[in-house]
């Protein structure tokens, strides 16, 4: 799914799979934008019959999550190609998650990944590689615990933030 396709037909449910820290920079605005944690708390069955567009910074993490939703739950889930960076390249707005106000700030991984659209300010974090790997391994660990628990409940999910709008 491309950014422009989210503007066609009924709006899809947008699922932001980035970390809470990344989400605090900006999110794609809209009444149907949820964090991954909010989505998982409601449960995949709550979204049966909806189009679901998952996004992250560049598309890798969201692609994995969309694939999981299709394979495990049979949902109509897509990866937003290029994710939030493609969204900015298309000139679409971003929102500050604290108050929903428009912002031109967008999280990028590094100067080498600063592919934001014209007029957007890249925000990079100085993260040591160990915590980044810990986040990735932690997600796999939580998935394993959920599998052991029969796919329901299990370990708490991620460190996602609040919904950006009502």
In short:
With 166 residues, the chain is of the alpha/beta class.
Q: What order do the helices and strands come in, and which of them pair?
A:
Layout: E1 13-16, H1 20-23, E2 33-35, H2 36-42, E3 51-55, H3 60-73, E4 76-79, H4 83-89, E5 94-95, E6 102-103, E7 105-107, E8 121-123, H5 129-148
Parallel strand pairs: 1-2, 1-3, 3-4, 7-8
Antiparallel strand pairs: 5-6
Domain Rhodanese: 8-96
Organism: Volvox reticuliferus
Protein name: Rhodanese domain-containing protein
Description of the structure:
The chain has 166 residues and is of the alpha/beta class. The protein has a single domain, classed as Oxidized Rhodanese, domain 1, CATH 3.40.250.10. Helices cover 31% and strands 16% of the residues. The chain has helices spanning 20-23, 36-42, 60-73, 83-89, 129-148, and strands at residues 13-16, 33-35, 51-55, 76-79, 94-95, 102-103, 105-107, 121-123. The strands form three sheets. The chain has a four-stranded parallel β-sheet. The longest helix is centred in the last third of the chain and has 20 residues, at 129-148. It is globular, with a radius of gyration of 15 Å. It comes from Volvox reticuliferus. Residues 8-96 form the Rhodanese domain. This is Rhodanese domain-containing protein.
Low-confidence stretches: 152-166
The helix/strand series, from N terminus to C terminus, equals EHEHEHEHEEEEH
Secondary-structure arrangement, i.e. CATH architecture: 3-Layer(aba) Sandwich
Query: How is the biggest beta sheet arranged?
Result: 4 strands, parallel
- Rg estimate, integer Å: 15 Å
- SS element count, helices: 5
CATH superfamily: Rhodanese-like domain
| Alpha-beta classification | alpha/beta
Helix percent band: 25-40%
CATH topology: Oxidized Rhodanese, domain 1
Ends apart, CA distance between termini: 24 Å
Work out the count of structural domains: 1
Shape: globular
């Amino acid at each position: 799914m491309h950014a422009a396709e989210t503007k066609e037909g009924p709006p899809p449910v947008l699922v932001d799979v980035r970390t809470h820290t990344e989400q605090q920079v900006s999110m794609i605005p809209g009444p149907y934008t949820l964090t991954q944690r909010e989505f998982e708390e409601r449960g995949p069955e709550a979204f049966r019959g909806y189009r679901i567009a998952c996004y992250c910074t560049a598309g890798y993490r969201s692609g994995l999550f969309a694939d999981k939703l299709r394979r495990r739950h049979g949902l109509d889930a897509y990866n937003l190609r290029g994710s939030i960076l493609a969204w900015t390249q298309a000139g679409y707005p971003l929102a500050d998650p604290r108050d929903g106000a428009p912002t031109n700030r967008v999280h990028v991984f590094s100067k080498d990944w600063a592919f934001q659209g014209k007029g957007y300010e890249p925000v990079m974090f100085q993260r040591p590689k160990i915590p980044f790997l810990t986040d990735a391994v932690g997600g796999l660990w939580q998935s394993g615990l959920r599998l052991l628990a029969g796919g329901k409940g299990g370990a708490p999910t991620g460190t996602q933030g609040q919904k950006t709008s009502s």
